[in-house]
Specification:
mainly alpha, 2 domains, transmembrane helix, transmembrane, DUF4383 domain-containing protein, membrane
């Protein structure tokens, strides 16, 4: 049994997970590549500006690795992409908090500035949202695959009721005499 076998294989929600991971991955990949092509010092605490953010070689490499993880999640899709989005989002939010505390210190080895902290928070919240979308809520619709996985008996009963209603509708259409004016 695989780790994700117990999770529902969603349909429409997978696009949200894939597009979210892919978009953020591409954004980070561009940022990281531009930082490396500028030949930034790896451990500079002052950093250089890349796309409006401060960066150094270390942050560029970390950005490329994070981008690779997100892009792999986008390629795989489904529940794995959702989980990767959520986990990476949490990592980005935590990174923003830690680097906020390290601003203007010698321990700021990723050359973060306030713009980087805000970027980290925004990207983190977006990734958590992409990862949690359709999975976490008290008011999920009954056709949501995660609601169905959490309430299998009720989902089965609703499916059977829909099938009985469809069968009854089919039978009543067959019995309606032609030309009686019933529509």
């Amino acid at each position: 049994m695989q780790f994700y076998d117990h999770l529902p294989q969603d349909h429409q929600l997978g696009r949200v997970y894939r597009y979210g991971a892919g978009f953020m991955g591409l954004l980070l990949l561009v940022f990281g590549i531009l930082g490396l092509t500028d030949r930034l010092a790896f451990f500079s605490t002052s950093g250089e500006h890349v796309l409006g953010l401060s960066s150094n070689g270390s942050l560029s490499v970390i950005s490329i690795v994070a981008a690779a993880v997100l892009i792999v999640g986008a390629v795989i899709g489904g529940n794995i992409a959702s989980t990767i989005n959520f986990a990476m989002g949490v990592i980005f939010v935590l990174s923003g908090a830690v680097n906020l505390a390290l601003l203007d210190t010698q321990a700021n080895f990723l050359a973060f500035r306030f713009q980087n902290v805000m970027f980290s928070f925004v990207v983190g919240i977006m990734l958590v949202t992409f990862g949690a979308y359709g999975r976490v809520s008290g008011g999920l619709p009954h056709d949501n695959p995660y609601w169905r996985a959490r309430h299998p008996e009720q989902a089965r009963a609703e499916t059977e009721a829909r099938e009985r209603a469809a069968l009854a509708a089919t039978r009543s259409d067959v019995r309606t005499p032609i030309g009686t004016g019933v529509r």
